[in-house]
Amino acid sequence: HSVLTQPPSASGTPGQRVAIPCSGSSSNVGSNPVTWYQHLPGTAPKLLMYSTNQRPSGVPDRFSGSKSGTSASLAISGLQSEDEADYYCAAWDVSLDDYVFGTGTKVIVL
Amino acid sequence: QVQLLESGPGLVKPSETLSLTCTVSGGSINNYYWSWIRQPPGEGLEWIGYIFYIGNTNYKSSLRSRVTISLDMSKNQFSLKLTSVTAADSAVYYCARHDVIPLMEHGMDVWGLGTTVTVSS
User: Which of the residues A55, B68, B88, B94 has the least number of beta carbons within 10 Å of its own beta carbon?
Assistant: First the structure.
């Protein structure tokens, strides 16, 4: 279903660094900027990162984004309990002419 | 502060048309793109399509034959119609805003809380 692949879950203890990979192809991640969303069930998804590595106003600098080739990554440093949520990458796919989301990763704070 | 609120029937019969409305408050529809996104139970997010404030639309390729997104500028609303629904269309449906930068590079910065639609007889 989803064109972008993420691991189902990632975990860490408070204060640790967690990285969430997002694997795509040359028609999406490889050629276009990546966006990341944070989603707590029952709430509205929140824009976390845009243009691959830009944080909207109000997003802590503990969150950072990067990309290399057809893979992108969201890193959370200094993990906090409030970071426990689902995280989705997204990008425009020029072959499908669609905006495609990743499969989603649930971050668990141990 | 711009807020979005989805509304519409929570239950739709198979083969019928799903119709939802998103009301924009605290701001204007002008100069933005407006998208619909859904999340089936236990699954991830899926972009359905968008409409620009001047009426241009773009739909997800696999849904294109069944989707229509329209605007009502006088009410500051935009709407989603999805025809011939099946159980696979059961989901939480969200509306969201994004700016005019191409390829949705800046992402969707304002979202509604979502509304649950179940397709069942």
Answer: B88
